[in-house]
């Protein structure tokens, strides 16, 4: 049986990277969510959004690891008070402003650089989730933009979500 791990190669565009990530997420997220649902439902009452971090810690690392193996740089220097989930999703590089309490959207961003260290664009990771109970109403989704400067990234996210 063929594993659905994401496959990246060093000459991919940011759009191709996002598409391959979405293929992987679409094939994996539901089974993982169902397998972790009972385990995370009760703790959600205490740890709230951190329960989603535990889920993303299982789903996302392979995406970033495979990108790095292909020669892309997706991480950045961490600051002392950074909170990171899913290997490379940093909370200071995210916005959460959209949706109702039972279907919120938090969008993380990762600037993607090629082997030469040049930015090729930004991978946006949109995580739908509920603040009322442990629930991920639909698959996380990758979007891509060509921008790599924070102000332009934030503007790109706003254009996408508003």
TrEMBL record:
Pfam families reported for this sequence: DUF6022 (PF19486)
For this protein, the record's InterPro entries field holds: DUF6022
Q: What's the name of the protein?
A: DUF6022 family protein
Q: Which organism is the protein's source? A: Paenibacillus ehimensis
Please spell out the taxonomic lineage of the organism that makes this protein.
Answer: Bacteria, Bacillati, Bacillota, Bacilli, Bacillales
